[in-house]
Amino acid sequence: MTNELRRCLGPVAVTAQAVGTVGLTLTAVFNIPEAMRSAGPATWISYALALVVVVLVGETLVLFRQLPGSPSGIAGYVAAGLGVRIGAAASWALLLGYGATLLGCLVFFGFFLEQLLLHLGWQAPRLLAYLLGGLGCLELARRDVQLSTRTMLLTETISALIILSLTLVIAHQGWGAADLRAINPLADTAGQVRSGLMVAVLSFIGFESAANLGREALQPERAIPRSIRTAVLIAGVLFVIWGAFLPEGLGWLPASARQGLDPLSALAEQLGIPGAGLWIKVGALLCLFGTCLGSLTALARLGYGLAEQRLLPQALARVHPRSGAPANALLSIGLPLVAGGALVVQHNLSISQIFGLFGGFSVLCFLLVYGLVACSSLQVALPGNSRRRRWLVGGTCLLAVAAIAVAYLTSVVGQQNGMLLTVAGLLLLGALRAWWVLPAGRA
Question: Which residues sit opposite 217 in a β-bridge?
Answer without folding.
Answer: 9
